[in-house]
Fold:
Amino acid sequence: MKKIAIIGAGYVGLVTGACFAQKGNRVTIVDNNQDKIDQLLKGAIPFYEPHLDIIVQDALAKKTITFVSTIQEALSQQPEFVFSCVGTPSLPNGAADLSFVEIVAAEIGMHMEQYTIIVNKSTVPVGTAAKVETIIAAKLTERNVKIAFDVASNPEFLKEGDAVNDFLMPDRVVIGVRSEESAEALYELYKPFLTSDKQFLVMTQPSAELTKYASNAMLATRISFMNQLAHLADKLGADIHQVKHGMAQDRRIGAHFLNAGIGYGGSCFPKDVAALVHMGMEQHYPMTLVKEVENINHVQRVWFSHQITNHYGPALATKTAGIWGLAFKPETDDIRSAPAIDVIKKLLEQGANVIVYDPVATENIKKIFGDLITYADQGQQVLQNADFLVLLTEWAEFTTTIPSHFLQLKDRVVFDGRNCFAPEDMKALGVSYYCIGRNSVTDDVPLNHYHVAATQHDSSAWQ
Ligand code: UDX
Ligand code: UDX
Structure:
């Protein structure tokens, strides 16, 4: 049993703390948002993440977890490990904003009382572990105390919607350290989650920090590759779905993250891709491939909305658009960088009415659009009230819909940003079905136009 403090009760901090508590450790989670702490003390999770509520409630009952609102209070418990899990949002130039990480490091330096291993779990640029060491050392000097400490980089690889499983059964645990002592201690902490010691990877701090960006950028690259290939498939009369299956059988390629669609969103890929581009610029080594991944993702979103405006022209102003799916992916209520935000804005700009439904993300989207759009309680309500449907998140309740239900749409038109249905089924029903790379509805003129813009690397043309 170890004593652990977790700073930041977001997706990452809360999942990390809850899973450590489940293994019998004593966990104190800190967040400077008092409302969050009050909710958590009652066992209520401030966001939707499958299984997390049960683990937190169980830990509260067993008193293995507690929630406090100051770092000082958490450190007074004398934890052996302090995990920093605060946000690192993008600055306007693409760099990661480290201000929260730095504030947390300073506070740790001000209040730590004995040897502690400080673990950076937030996604932070290379060099941040060293920066955190410097900040803490400076605070200890100011206090005129000598307390030994280690800083470790331990990037998270949690997928929202499946984060608990990812933590309990990780593919790998990456640890960047400067001392063997801290590597040993972290190995003991993570041992209950490992099925093999080979999953525990010890490396230098910069390597660990870069591994996180490299992993997310690789996954984003696969998605953008497939999105660009999908347009070529359409032009050549190939079906991206079949091409994907043909590729995926090669074990060197595999099947994951090859789904063409409206492009990636979420709190990680867009910000981490931008940060990697920025790190390259800082080193005078432009990350041209990764920059293009970002461009393709941007173009893909704009292209998707253009499909709708091209189909309807000015008549769009007389239409009601139905949206299925607001979250950036299924099994989460997170709408950070969700395609739905851009698509709804575009539809409103064109004067359309918009009715939306999502199983769990509606309350979050309400904070952006208020009474500008209508909120349905069920997917069916959208079909009954809309002229056409836009599918943006592949929730199971959408993908298992029997296609004949789309005949309720007044115009019988579906724009599918997630390639959920077979184009031939839709055609047989008389539904105009726009999807991605599957030769559904072909509007030759716009497709040519998009290709020219994409190859000119001119994403501004898509604004
Ligand atoms: C965050 C980072 O954004 C991501 O880069 C990293 O990989 C993991 O940590 P997430 O958990 O999704 O991801 O962030 P968020 O939901 O914003 O949670 C951060 C929490 O920290 C919030 O609850 C916020 O209130 C809290 N916080 C922030 C503090 O307690 N103190 C601070 O100084 C700043
Ligand atoms: C990601 C990483 O997967 C995780 O390891 C990391 O630590 C945090 O960032 P997350 O953002 O929760 O996790 O979601 P993920 O499942 O990776 O999906 C990201 C985006 O890619 C979503 O918008 C999703 O719809 C999109 N996507 C995913 C595709 O467009 N096609 C695919 O084939 C897979």
Q: What stands out?
A: The pocket of uridine-5'-diphosphate-xylopyranose (ligand 1) is lined by residues 7-13, 31-33, 36, 85-88, 100, 103-104, 122-123, 156, 267 (CB under 6 Å).
